[in-house]
């Protein structure tokens, strides 16, 4: 199955054209708007000084991310590029966060530095949403240290863990959210999603069942996956603000264990892959439907060929075949006369 890239390819292409431009060529003005999944918009443009490139991003869930320290997290993420990249206090209207890239300061930098900078800027949405996951994972570290060696089956400890805050990211409005709940031995991530078509719901169940079966067969280190329809899981029941009896709404639950939350590259990969699960999920549903439609159209064409070969070339008004065979001289054969 194809995996959606966590970085934005159009951001990469746009910045590559500007950063690795011919130094002898005259710089042109740049004004490009890029739309991504989850109603995310980017704006890459030049300022009055064409050496300065403004990169802005808009996310629908920005207000939720602000409560989890997204601005401080992004500034710390891009701090190592402070010589050429700096956040803007006066954010571009219509966007949530802006960065100014000084391309003139990149002339003395190595290509490895430039490639890393472009890669990090293409991950701007990933880093923004990751701020909420990082906060939940940090809380998991605290709880794991706090309850280490204690009887976690005690009623008072269970009551305390039950009241743990659930982080909510409304990345596609009220209907489709990400819920993250940390605990002392796991982090539970729940996606609420809406299936607009009845067939999408059926395909979705097949895909999710494959996740469950794959874990049972061979990938036993994978996160536990559960799916509930209509009713939210008990872990997030109090955090679901908008409840409706929509049969097309489902909840996909991932249970991340300590082996997935190990600090370093494994934790970063876990954040990158799990936050884009909804896009990955619906993308493959659409691909599966398109593939089946293609196969059905191909099969219909084959059936039509068979029917066309079986159809007489000439028929009369009553549907009976007309014999148009003729002799070598051109006379029509008449089998009714002797």
Automatic annotation (TrEMBL):
Main location: cytoplasm
The keyword Cytoplasm appears for this protein: yes
Signal peptide segment: none
Presence of keyword Calcium: no
InterPro entries hit by this protein: ARPC2, ARPC2/4
Alphabetized SUPFAM superfamilies for the sequence: Arp2/3 complex subunits (SSF69645)
A single GO BP: Arp2/3 complex-mediated actin nucleation
Subcellular location as annotated: Cytoplasm, Cytoskeleton
Keywords annotated in UniProt: Actin-binding, Cytoplasm, Cytoskeleton
Gene Ontology cellular-component terms listed: Arp2/3 protein complex
GO molecular function, one term: actin filament binding
Pfam families: P34-Arc
Family of this protein: Belongs to the ARPC2 family.
Quaternary structure, from the entry: Component of the Arp2/3 complex.
Main function: Functions as actin-binding component of the Arp2/3 complex which is involved in regulation of actin polymerization and together with an activating nucleation-promoting factor (NPF) mediates the formation of branched actin networks.
Protein name (Swiss-Prot/TrEMBL): Arp2/3 complex 34 kDa subunit
Organism: Candidozyma auris (Yeast)
């Amino acid at each position: 199955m194809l995996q959606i890239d966590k970085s934005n390819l159009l951001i990469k292409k746009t910045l590559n054209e500007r950063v690795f431009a011919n130094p002898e060529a005259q710089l042109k003005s740049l004004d490009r708007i890029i739309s991504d999944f989850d109603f995310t918009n980017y704006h890459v443009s030049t300022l009055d000084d064409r050496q300065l490139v403004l990169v802005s991003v808009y996310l629908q869930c920005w207000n939720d991310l602000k409560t989890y320290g997204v601005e401080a997290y992004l500034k710390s993420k891009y701090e190592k590029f402070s010589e050429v990249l700096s956040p803007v206090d006066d954010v571009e209207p219509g966007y949530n966060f802006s960065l100014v890239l000084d391309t003139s300061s990149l002339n003395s930098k190595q290509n490895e530095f430039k490639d890393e900078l472009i890669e990090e800027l293409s991950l701007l949405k990933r880093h923004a949403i990751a701020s909420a996951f990082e906060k939940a994972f940090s809380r998991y570290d605290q709880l794991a240290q706090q309850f280490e060696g204690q009887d976690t089956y005690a009623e008072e400890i269970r009551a305390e863990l039950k009241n743990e805050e659930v982080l909510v990211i409304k990345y596609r409005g009220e209907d489709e959210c990400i819920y993250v709940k940390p605990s002392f031995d796991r982090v539970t991530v729940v996606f609420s999603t809406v299936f607009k078509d009845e067939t999408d719901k059926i395909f979705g169940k097949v895909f999710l069942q494959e996740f469950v079966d794959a874990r049972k067969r061979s990938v036993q280190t994978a996160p536990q996956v559960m799916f509930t329809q209509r009713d939210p899981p008990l872990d997030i029941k109090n955090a679901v603000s908008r409840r409706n009896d929509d049969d097309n709404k489902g909840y996909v639950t991932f249970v991340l264990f300590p082996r997935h939350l190990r600090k370093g590259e494994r934790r970063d990969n876990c954040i990158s892959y799990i936050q884009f699960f909804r896009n990955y999920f619906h993308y493959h549903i659409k691909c599966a439907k398109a593939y089946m439609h293609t196969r059905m159209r191909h099969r219909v064409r084959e059936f039509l060929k068979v029917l066309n070969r079986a159809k007489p070339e000439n028929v009369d008004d009553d549907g009976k075949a007309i014999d148009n065979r003729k002799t070598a001289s051109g006379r029509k054969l008449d089998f009714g006369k002797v």
